[in-house]
């Protein structure tokens, strides 16, 4: 699948230029090909960044192969917090800087989303290229440039570096816990609402837009949706499709230099929940598990309260005119969006949570996030922001049955 999409991606989103990711493969035994790539590029001193779990999942095997090829490998384990989780915060990042020698030729990110966020930041700041070795198909950030960091207790996405290569070993990905694949599926399910929010931001606020990217993102999600059974079984076909879709989503964000197609109001809810968990010192939930569940909440909201855009009580005449002009296409998009029930059933099928309460998120927090999350991205329009701007606001959660 990827070859055709990569060519089109370069043509439609990157002015025909070569992508900064020189090589990308999603194959069984991809780990075996990493040493050849590094030797080819003349990288002899490499630093592998991992955590306890990912060392076991892929790090140890990779280490043996790299040493067998005569490379000098140093490993740096990202510290875990009291919940045995790695956080991309100041403490972790400083440790990475201290432990990474300046004479390093290349960094290897061996892990899932957070290990990649840490590595891409260190890579950008130390000006050392990095290779992505995902250990689970759990998130779409592997190939993007954005590194969400927790700085002074607040989440901030910093533009950092994209990997120069991705070696996604299907044997490793298929052996990862089911909740990781379910989270990856949840990050793709988020596209059911994020692509609509991108349409809103274009139609109502004239924000940057790219038609090919919108279609590609929508079709990647549709493909994953058809493969729920094989993703649930974690077979090679399903995990390959999921991983390729996640990689494509990251590349679209990277080439456009913004995350609009992949991240709408459902991501803003998820970020808000994450910040509250952080404040309360709670164990974090997987990013994709939250965005999938949040997509269900947002779909429910839009289908019930945003399906008559021309009647929204908007005062600003520019908005009013644009809403009237585009109400038919907005209604069409909303009708095409899977319902919260459908999204929930798909999430359950792949073994993930479907409702906020299953993530330990109570109705009060959902309600609070529906009121506050649109402030997290002041300059990004979404259906949720539109409801607030129009003065209609959001109804109490859980929403009343129609
Ligand atoms: Zn995401």
From TrEMBL:
InterPro entries per record: G1PDH, Glycerol_DH
Origin: domain of life: Bacteria
Name of the molecule in the record: Glycerol-1-phosphate dehydrogenase [NAD(P)+]
Source species taxonomy: Bacteria, Bacillati, Bacillota, Bacilli, Bacillales
GO biological process assignments: phospholipid biosynthetic process
GO molecular function, one term: metal ion binding
UniProt keyword terms in alphabetical order: Cytoplasm, Lipid biosynthesis, Lipid metabolism, Metal-binding, NAD, NADP, Oxidoreductase, Phospholipid biosynthesis, Phospholipid metabolism
Residue stretches spanning the membrane: none
Pfam families: Fe-ADH_2 (PF13685)
């Amino acid at each position: 699948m990827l070859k055709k999409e990569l060519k089109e991606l370069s043509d439609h989103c990157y002015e025909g230029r070569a992508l900064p990711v020189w090589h990308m493969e999603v194959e069984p035994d991809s780990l075996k090909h990493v040493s050849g790539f590094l030797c080819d590029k003349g990288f002899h001193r490499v630093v592998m960044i991992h955590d306890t779990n990912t060392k076991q999942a892929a790090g140890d095997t990779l280490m043996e192969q790299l040493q067998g090829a005569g490379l000098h490998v140093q490993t740096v384990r990202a510290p875990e917090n009291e919940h045995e989780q790695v956080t991309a915060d100041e403490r972790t990042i400083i440790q990475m800087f201290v432990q990474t020698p300046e004479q390093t030729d290349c960094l290897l990110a061996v892990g899932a989303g957070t290990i990649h966020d840490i590595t891409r930041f260190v890579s950008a700041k130390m000006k050392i290229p990095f290779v992505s070795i995902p250990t689970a198909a759990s998130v779409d950030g592997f190939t993007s440039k954005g590194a969400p960091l927790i700085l002074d207790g607040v989440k901030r996405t910093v533009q950092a570096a994209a990997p120069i290569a991705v070696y996604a070993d299907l044997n490793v990905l298929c052996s990862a816990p089911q909740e990781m694949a379910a989270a990856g599926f949840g990050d793709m399910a988020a596209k059911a609402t994020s692509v609509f929010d991108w349409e809103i931001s274009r139609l109502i606020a004239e924000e940057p837009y790219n038609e090919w990217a919108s279609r590609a993102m929508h079709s990647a999600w549709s493909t994953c949706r058809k493969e729920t059974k094989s993703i649930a079984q974690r077979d090679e076909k399903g995990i390959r499709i999921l991983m390729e879709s996640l990689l494509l989503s990251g590349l679209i964000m990277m080439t456009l230099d913004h995350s609009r197609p992949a991240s709408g109001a459902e991501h803003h809810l998820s970020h808000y929940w994450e910040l509250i968990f952080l404040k309360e010192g709670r164990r974090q939930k997987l990013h994709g598990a939250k965005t999938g569940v949040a997509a269900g909440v947002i779909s429910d909201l839009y289908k019930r309260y945003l399906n008559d855009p021309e009647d929204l009580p908007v005062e600003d005449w520019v908005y009013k005119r644009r809403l009237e002009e585009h109400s038919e296409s907005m209604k069409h998009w909303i009708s095409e969006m899977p319902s919260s029930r459908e999204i929930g059933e798909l999430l359950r099928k792949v073994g993930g949570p479907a409702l906020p309460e299953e993530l330990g998120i109570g109705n009060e927090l959902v309600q609070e996030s529906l009121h506050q999350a649109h402030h997290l991205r002041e300059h990004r329009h979404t259906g949720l922001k539109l409801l607030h701007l129009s003065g209609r606001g959001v109804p109490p959660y859980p929403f009343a049955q129609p």
